[in-house]
Design a protein that fits this description.
about 240 residues; alpha/beta; 8-stranded parallel beta barrel; 10 helices; 8 strands; about 40% helix; binds 2-phosphoglycolic acid
Length: about 240
Amino acid sequence: MYLMEKIVAANLKMNKTFPEIQEYIRDINDLSNENIVIIPTSIYVPYFLNKNYSVGVQDIEYNEFGEYTGSLSPKQVSSMGVKYTIVGHSERRKHYNETDDIINKKVEAGLNNNLKVILCVGETKEQRENNQTKDVIEKEILNDLKSISNLENVIIAYEPIWAIGTGLIPKADEIKEVSLLIKDVIKNINGSNIPVLYGGSVNDTNIKDIIRIEEIDGVLVGSASLNPSKLKVIINEVLK
Ligand code: PGA
């Protein structure tokens, strides 16, 4: 069986002051693998570049230039040497009312500008309880990737919304089931095999069990990644 290279993406979200981020950068200086993706708050991005790990941004605008005060252009991001962008994180969907239509445009804009796009999908607690998980995930993927045929640079992060920042995670079988579904949906779009990450309360103690799930090609880590030593434990488990 073809084994995909594993990925660890660290989403630092809107955390840390500048002195704290300088210390963080020093603490992770020994990381050396391009499949480690550090995703800081955008104002700090330049300080993470030209290291032996990859850098991503947490979101992009879909327009390339112009009157979009406060936004990050995919072209600007790519021209700085950033390799990845998250798109469709549930916090963007929730706090900024991002619809699948907007997310679809962002995925396209990211890919057009040579960024690898980590597209986040996931169900709410209520949807899971109503057995709608599979329908929700399939619908999000089909809508978010509408009219996009080259999925070579797309990575899907399965992030159950109820698992983000809560300490709760689905059972291994449930993660496996959704991951297989995602891979099937993608294969039906264009036959390609793309990485599927798991995200939601990943930490230095549960990582062993998560990464044992064969269908998972890596993790998207939020709060645990704010602590360099926890992040390193996770990286050592995933990329060993
Ligand atoms: P968490 O966040 O690890 O803090 O649950 C994950 C994410 O939002 O990507």
